[in-house]
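PROTOCOL LOG
Step 1. Enter all chains and additional molecules of the complex.
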Amino acid sequence: MTGQRTATATLADPAPAVPCLYRVASRREDTSDTVTVELADPDVPVPAFAPGQFAMLTALGVGEVPVSVSGLGDGGGGRARRLEHTLRAVGAVTRALCAVQPGGLIGVRGPFGAGWDVPSAAGRDLVIVAGGIGLAPLRPVVLTALAHRSRYGRIVLLAGARTPADLLYAGDLDPWRRAGVEVAVTVDRAERGWSGEVGLVTALISPAGLAPGNSVAFVCGPDIMMRVTADALAALGIPADRIRVSLERNMRCGAAWCGHCQLGPLLLCRDGPVVGYDRAAALMRVREL
Amino acid sequence: MTGTVAERISAHPFFGPLTGEQRAALAADGTAVRFAAGERLFEEGGDADRFWLIEDGSVTLDIRVPGRGDQVIETLAGGAVLGWSWLYPPQRWQFGAVARLATTAIEFDARAVLRRCDADPAFGYAALRLFTPVISERLQATRLRLLDLYGAPSQPGYRETRETKAEQR
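Step 2. Run joint prediction.
Step 3. Record the structure below.
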């Protein structure tokens, strides 16, 4: 592996411009178009990513895309730290990344950006609202809260998916429920055999019986979903600065140099992707920035 | 749920905009009801002569599709109002409804409420202002679902805008 490492770049650099190569240690197909991979290096410790941070992943010979971490990365049991990413195949790069089999190589730059800052929510209820693939960047929030359960109040996870078959981490939900997470799921389109909720994810907010004065919200999904969800949570009484959204833009350098990810005054690869709704609300309503 | 219908209506935030007198009048047209899980409340095309405030539980709205059975459109949870086909002619249910879970609700006699609205325009206006936000919110939610928010290529957590835009060219 070391021989494949490039030049002097390491993931410990503040802004590595050259990817390091990691092997796919495991690969799991979550849905028909979504894959979760664990990346590891037997020789070099994988750096710690905070929940909400992202890496630039390279499909060799194809291109590079930003992808948030979807796991805590702690291998446990003496196992080396791993990087976990959930990928949805929608373009040339992600299709190539999804196709890499165990033992194959993926380039990694990172960690980049501001994360969810879960520890700052200690003592409060966590309201985690995910739409579609947005559950991937939020999974580390759930895992962090469960790893330090006594630090937090209620952990409420409200998840929306297109159809039951598109629901991510379906196998995680029952163990999370048993661990004390209040999980509610809704789908846009029910399929035969689905006996759960049907409707927009915001419909799950009122029945959850939240305590807005003592809640911190973490919201990730398509921009419109985040906007209507954050507005609904704000209308309930959660202050905008305690509603955090993860904004997706065109991250390229990861170091706030190139400006591709600029959103108004923010360079999202550095100032985001996680941003308080007090700052994000106005920016999410502008046609072009 | 405990208490009389009048007490339950007075305590429920949905009826907050009504005056005490209007709430009392509405309570006279209401009855506390329970539905077992799987029990059908009404059929598509039936006479829309009632509406409900769901207090606890969940109700499924469905539409009958030949050869495909009852297709679920939406579920309504505690705190939601079920039924507004009674408000306008032809007063027929546009969809069907089944209790998804054991459900408690207050059931209102829609014809009696309509008569009260006609006889007392102030009450009628207040009732209309109570229900139009419900209709508006459902419409907005339906419009957002029509966008198919979670379908590709939009994909939060991936930030692949550049790639997908390039592919669209």
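Step 4. Note key features.
DSSP finds five helices and eight strands in chain B.
The CA atoms of residues 150 and 156 of chain B lie 9 Å apart.
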